[in-house]
Amino acid sequence: MNIETAASQMESLGSPTRLRIYRTLVRAGLDGLAVGALQQKVDIPASTLSHHCRKLIEAGLVTQERQGTTLICRANYKAMSSLIGYLADECCADGRAEEAATTED
Q: What is the pTM of this model?
């Protein structure tokens, strides 16, 4: 993963609404959620959900698949793992882990 991709994905998760949508999809597992069910869970208008889903899709964190008349949203777990890996790959490379953990408190 390059820094531009990581920055784009983190930016898309910087919105509390998008983060809530994404976490809901992550919790849903591989089956994902129909847009209507996702809308009920996050309790936002359909147009707002559509806008935020588009941003998550553009960042590569969410996918959508049409099944008949139903649109299914899924978290892209490969992208999530790549982002987490990118953030953790060099954890404490220049210092000790204990010091890093205590400086954030």
A: 0.85
